[in-house]
Amino acid sequence: MSHPVQWTLAGRDGKARTGQLHTRNGVVSTPAFMPVGTRAAVRAVDVDDLEATGTEIALANTYHLMLRPGSQVVADLGGIHNFWGWQRPILTDSGGYQIFSLRPQIDEDGVRFKSVYDGRAVHLRPEEAVTIQEDLGADIAMVLDVCIGLPSQREMVSEAMERTLRWAERSLEVHRRSDQALFGIVQGGVDPDLRAMSAAKTASLGFAGFGIGGLSVGESPAQREVALRAAIDELPADRVRYVMGLGDPEGVMAGVELGADLFDCVWPTRLARHGRVFTANGDFNLRRAEYATDPRPLEAGCDCHTCTRHHRAYLRHLLANNELAAFRLLSVHNLTYTMRLLAGIRTAIDIGDLDTHLANVRARRLPVQSGND
Length: 373
Hints:
This protein has helices spanning 47-53, 62-67, 71-76, 80-84, 96-100, 126-136, 154-174, 192-204, 221-232, 249-258, 267-273, 305-309, 312-320, 324-350, 354-364, and strands at 6-13, 16-23, 26-30, 32-37, 58-61, 90-93, 105-107, 110-114, 121-124, 140-142, 181-186, 209-212, 240-243, 262-265, 276-277, 284-285.
């Protein structure tokens, strides 16, 4: 089966791998991180900022866009790329995670929940999640899945996993857009047997790529690793593997080691708005008083717009006074750091030095207790 999105292998080191994700709107080097543009906007930054950070693919949220402004509005304005102004690859998630957080009513037909905008009742079926994403026009769409919190009883996890599989089949039947790839989603909680079963059955349906969902919902890093390992081992080697909702540096590094290719999370930008700064030498909170007169950039040697133009004292001043510029400037830095982390990982995989590289990254990223670099 020919798909509009193709992933090709470039290099390997253990289970970790590099590759090229080919879409109609450009090529993405993997492993890659996708900033989250929930409402077709990554909070506090614009598309020029995204390009400057090295972002190659971004994510938008189907749940929010279908409610406001509505998928038909986006379609009438030329699709999500024109609506957003981001002409590089876009992935839209199905909204399953956001709906899960609203405690929806779930049955075989779909999910019922109340809109966060006006409280109206919404009934979303798996088929509608596909057609909405076809209206939006992203390069990659995700099937609607059933996400549950952890820990949960095995029977509940198994039921959610089986329903996700049935919904995946229904989604494939209605997907018509030839220039858009549809990805399946693996569920199964932290049970390795359920994860392996879900991955094998989802893979057998012939999706263009695969999301691994239902994680970052209460499990420990060790439990997540078990789940990821079981799922990835059953997924086709020639298709991209996307760990949904995982984007902290430590989580990304662990995912790469297991063979994952794509990641997304609000972590870099959300933490930036709270004053948390990512650096190769450890993260720190810029709101601390010790930075009030600090003339150094956020990170020595960083070439992002923020670090080349501003010092810590000024940026802390912006934060302390709730200046909106602080949110943008810190977000630009954290995203640049994240993209640089992935670029370094790709290089290390290609030269066969990933273990040493990650050991060095992890050793340097020990939490910073003071202003020392």
